[in-house]
Input
Amino acid sequence: MLEEKWMTKYISTRGGNEKISSAAAIIKGLASNKGLYVPCEIPRLPVTIEEMVGKKYKEIAFIILKSFFDDFSDDELRYCVESAYDDKFEREEIVPIVQAGTVHFIELFHGKTAAFKDIALSILPYLMTTAMKKEGIDKKICILTATSGDTGKAALEGFADVEGTEIIVFYPHNAVSKIQELQMTTQEGSNTHVFAIKGNFDDAQRGVKSIFTDLEFAKELSQKNILLSSANSINIGRLVPQVAYYVYSYLKLLEEKAVNLGEPMNVVVPTGNFGNILAAYYAKMMGIPIRTFICASNKNKVLSDFFETGIYDANRDFYVTNSPSMDILISSNLERLLFHLNMNVYKDHEKSSEEVAALMADLEKNGKYEVSGDIKKEMGMFVGGFVGPELTLKTIQSMYSKHGYLMDTHTAVAYDVYSEYKKHVCDDFETVIAATASPYKFPASVANAIGIEKMDDDFEYLQEINRVTGVKIPSSFADLKQRPVLHKGVIEKTEMKEAVKDSLKK
Output
């Protein structure tokens, strides 16, 4: 192990005296004061950009992980990287960069679950189990996760039958696609537990956070030799691996001579929880030239409103849309950005965390908060925009007919927001768009967009989309319809803690 003085320490966004190693932060997931763990300082790239050009994805992932998790040995991190990024991905390059029209798409959906969460959740189980050994913790770890559709399956896939773990997933009933639901409810593994809750994703997320911060419940579990942790992007071990694909995408643009060294790119990300675009911000802070972060929202446009006004207001109607993984009103990872922006202003951990804690208290009490004028200035690199369900479908159709590129509904939201941005801003910088899911994750919507007539179920749509477009169906979908449904629980949102208790009895 490296000497402690060289280790990056992690602190809560809401303050306190706790400074812990990355291994401890990965295990805990959420700080005891409800804050999220952040590095005391975001590390700079340890090598020059020129030195990284031409390296494979796994090599870039190792460099990024080593920068943040420097209490792990090189051998430990190489084991995690090699174990995660293997033949479970259908493309050798892990995240292909594809040009369509005037933009490049970072295709993040070639893993087992056909969504961007695979990139981080393929490696998190290895980071978690390695961290447990490093910290000398001999307990069963229970992974507790709320999902708006994709995180759940990716976490289940990653942790299924991993020794010494249980994984419990909560998702909003009737608010995910049929494909997403079946991916979760057919999941095998003796340690997997899946529950639909009568509520939305925010209800699931609040429930999970409430369980995490229930000290009496934690004590009860500890007596049974069980420790709670999370696979959501509130866990720093889930967030950091996502930084790698933004670094990698810039390197690929350099290789293709789409940009010159030092010339910035723009990044467009469809997001509800904010973690995926936060990872791009971390890449910038590490030294990757990124000019503008374009945050794309659907009809639940709390984030785009925030970047326009500096006011985060969750007191609004909640909409179920055709881009369900973005149907979120409480964006947990925005808390991390607020901490870092306050650090840019105050250069002081204590002052920054005081500001964040006050904002989060306002959110909890009033459902809204407003950032200071200084923070509004710091937010200048972020632009927000939103797209409604009908335009989302038109955008899929337009991109396919003009360029032959088939997008899912979330990527379509991102592309349309970028198109609107281009109409109003004179910005010719090269742009990458995070393509966060396979079009086959949401087949009914995609089929509707490209003119396929209504069919009886999602699986008929899969075949017809493939016949019409020639786009390959993810291999993990091949027998999904035939798999038996193993998880049938539908519970009230108030019953989540009891569901955890019952699951851990089995």
